[in-house]
Specification:
Strand content: 5-15%
CATH topology of the largest domain: Rossmann fold
Structural class: alpha/beta
Number of helices: 16
Bound molecules: zinc ion
CATH class of the largest domain: Alpha Beta
CATH architecture of the largest domain: 3-Layer(aba) Sandwich
Radius of gyration: 28 Å
Largest sheet: 5 strands, parallel
Helix content: 40-55%
Number of domains: 2
Length: 386
């Protein structure tokens, strides 16, 4: 990561850059703040600058072999320690057990939280993530190895407050008698929970929340939000870029739900009208979307059939629909009844399963439409659609 890829924090970047250029980087740094303020991005930018072998000015060169390895997080002299869960690995886990997951996680979003990381490890959300005692052996082993490609060895420790006491004590010994050309960077959300003897060995730097306008500007540039939308998200994000990203995801999710409901209404109308040509066009449009979207649409349809059936039965307290969905339901729910609810549901489930199995979307959806036509309006019905 380059300094100019790190959002905001101009003053901190200048300070780090000045000590890097003067060759005065302490052997143990501790950055404190929320992960979403950019602890890991700042550490990664600092390390990339330190290891860069190209021409560096106000930033690392970005193109030398060391920079390229840093950008992929595969530099052999840079090591990471982070909390891990026991999961089903059966022994005391260490960071290296999750090296692949960690790299993917960090490349995807270096502003993410410990909860996000627990989810990325595939652990259930209540699982405890810790830095276990065996980790200190790993750290020692790595530090006693010769550095591979650079003059430095770097150990980045994310959330040292999650360290078991025994592990922290062993690490303290290393910090007391630093190995030559070794840099420790500790990134803590709760420095108060890190043992004081470790704290006193580090040079501390508080990373403040990002400024609202810094987040807003990024949202406008990276995600093309309007200035009003960007300001609103930035306001609620409270200086945390990770939180801003989560809000965006939720908004996109809400947008997709909206689309799915539009499509559901359209599908039901077309099937009621039994017009094959517009149905074909509908299938064409739907299958031009990604498989993930098709799958989500079918999941939405399954939910709507259930909700409309329950509504038709008059059990309003069991109906979970948004105001917009209810609006359509007023007219539509009478058509989902005890005769057709099971076949409709089963056909949708089958289509959903077939899409999951990578079946041919056009065949699956055309078939589905025909089945919906047969079931939504029984042949003997002569009632007019509304
Ligand atoms: Zn470089």
């Amino acid at each position: 990561m380059l300094f100019n890829e790190v959002i905001g924090h101009e003053e901190i970047k200048q300070r780090l850059l000045a000590s890097l250029q003067a060759g005065r980087v302490s052997h143990a740094l501790l950055f404190s703040g929320e992960s979403g303020f950019g602890l890991l991005p700042l550490a990664l930018a600092l390390v990339q600058y330190l290891l860069c072998t190209g021409e560096k000015g106000a930033d690392a060169c970005g193109t030398c072999p060391a920079c390229r390895k840093m950008q992929k997080l595969v530099h052999p002299d840079v090591h990471f320690v982070f909390p891990v869960t026991k999961g089903n690995k059966g022994k005391t886990p260490v960071s290296d057990d999750y090296a692949g997951e960690w790299r993917d996680f960090l490349l995807a979003n270096p502003y993410a939280t410990l909860d996000d990381w627990v989810a990325a490890m595939g652990a259930d959300e209540n699982a405890q993530a810790m830095i276990y005692v065996d980790e200190s052996q790993q750290v020692l082993r790595k530090l006693t190895l010769k550095s591979y490609e650079s003059d430095y060895k770097v150990m980045i420790i994310w959330l040292p407050e999650k360290m078991r006491g025994e592990c922290a004590n062993k690490l303290l010994k290393i910090l007391e008698e630093p190995y030559p050309n070794t840099l420790f960077i500790l990134l803590s959300e709760q420095p108060g929970a890190v043992i004081t003897t470790i704290l006193s060995r580090t040079q501390r730097l508080r990373v403040p929340p990002l400024q609202q306008q810094e987040i807003a500007r990024e949202l406008e540039q990276r995600y093309r939000l309007s200035p009003e939308q960007a300001a609103e998200v930035a306001h609620v994000a409270r200086g945390d870029w990770g939180r801003a990203l989560k809000m965006l995801e939720r908004q996109e999710g809400a947008g997709e739900e909206h689309d799915n409901q539009e499509l559901f209404i359209k599908l039901m109308r077309l099937c009621w009208e039994r017009k094959m040509l517009p149905v074909n066009q509908f299938v064409q449009d739907l299958t031009s979307r990604g498989r993930e979207k098709q799958k989500n649409f079918l999941a939405h349809c399954i939910r709507m059939i259930r909700e409309n059936f329950i509504r038709n039965f008059g059990m309003k307290e069991l109906v979970y629909m948004t105001a917009r969905e209810q609006e359509f339901s007023k007219r539509f729910s009478p058509y989902v009844n005890e005769e057709n609810v099971v076949p409709l549901h089963d056909e949708l489930e089958r289509a959903h399963a077939d899409i999951l199995r990578n079946g041919n979307g056009k065949i699956i959806f055309t078939d589905l439409c025909i089945k919906v036509m047969q079931n939504i309006r029984p042949k003997e019905s002569s009632r007019q659609a509304t």
